[in-house]
Amino acid sequence: MKEFNIVLAGVGGQGTLLAAEALGTAAVKDDLNVRVGEIHGMAQRGGAVISTVRIGQEVLASTVLEGRADILIGFEPIETLRSLKYASEGTFVIMSTERVPPVELATRKATYPNIEEIVEKIRRFTNNIILVDTERLAREAGSSLTRNVVLLGVAAGTGRLPVTKDSLLEAVRELVPSKHLEVNVRAFELGFDSLSRKRGK
Q: Rounded to whole angstroms, how far apart are CA atoms 62 and 139?
């Protein structure tokens, strides 16, 4: 595999950095060459955060070029839209439907677009879209703070990641504090299994 590019887009406090670190750690466990990068917007909770994970033999830097993302994991719908420059028709978009209105939206008193509008705009780039009710799955796991791990589970469930499910779950186990381990493992499995349920398997 020459290169595989993952972009994670969200806002501060959603756990995008932990998710990116887990993907990077899983790649190391699978003996893959990997580079992980972070792009911070507003340096505060609620500000835009983009993380990149690049895996493959020819990967030398963490920067993902526009239109080169294989997977775009959107932790927040508007931030997913903002990151579509990394997408192409071959990109697989995994997006949480939970809205966390960006700070500037409230400042401008602008209206948050509905999910249907956002999905319509994403379809201009790619038809490969998975919508995830992260709030419901995280609550089912036992903690709303596990939304990021739910998304990792969904990503693993697509079968498109170059890392194995076992390595990714092992990375989550290593990075999450032991007192929160059980609920995070449950969140991962619920995310992973949610695709099977959608397909009626």
A: 33
Name the helix (H) or strand (E) containing 37.
strand 34-40
Q: Distances from the Cα of 56 to the Cαs of 60, 86, 102, 166, 181, in angstroms? A: 9, 18, 33, 19, 29
pTM over 0.90? The answer is yes
pLDDT tens profile 104-136: 776 777 889 999 999 999 999 999 999 999 999
**pLDDT at residue number 78:** 94
Total number of domains constituting the chain:
1
Please check whether residue 174 is in contact with residue 186, taking contact to mean a CB–CB distance below 8 angstroms. Answer: no
| First vs last C-alpha separation in the chain | 30
Q: What is the dihedral of CA 125, 12, 181, 24, to 10 degrees?
A: 60
Structural domain range at position 163: 4-198
CA 170 to chain centroid, in Å, comes to: 17
Give start and end residues of each alpha helix (H) in the chain.
Answer: 16-29, 77-82, 103-108, 115-122, 134-141, 147-157, 165-175, 181-198
pLDDT tens digit string along 58-87? 999 999 999 999 999 999 999 999 999 999
